[in-house]
Amino acid sequence: IMSNYHKNPASLFIITGDHADRTSLDPNPTFYERYSVPCIIYGTGITKDMIPGGVAGNHIHIAPTLFELIAPQGFEYYSVGKSLTQGNHIGINHEFWITPDFIGRIGNSSIQRLPWRQGNEPFADTGRIQQDVEAMRAVSWWQVKHGEYLTKSVIK
Hints:
Elements: E1 12-16, H1 31-35, E2 39-43, H2 62-70, E3 91-92, E4 96-98, E5 102-105, E6 111-113, H3 126-146, H4 152-155
Antiparallel strand pairs: 1-2, 3-4, 4-5, 5-6
């Protein structure tokens, strides 16, 4: 794919992985080392400044990020996730959450500082995180159960 990039320099590539456990040489990897996945955005005109520092996200944030990067100004779309170009404070999967500074297991007190976080003791606003987890699960449940009834008046 990348070898053909010169034929269409306006191409945009978003490279990511899945949430499968990794094999690690370390017998006790951190949550971040074991469960985080990369998200690489590459293309002509793409700079690191397009994504603010201190963001966190997951796969539901990729599509709105793509829309923000390539759609015409004023393009209207609806998404459960928020574009990473607008900043985002949390990513969630079925078992873990991640913020710009911490990663933790949903439903218990297992929290670890991310490697770049300074300080001795982990601290995270677990109340807000739990609210975000419950809200995302509620929206996902509602969409599965009643998604065929989505209209602009419901989404707004």
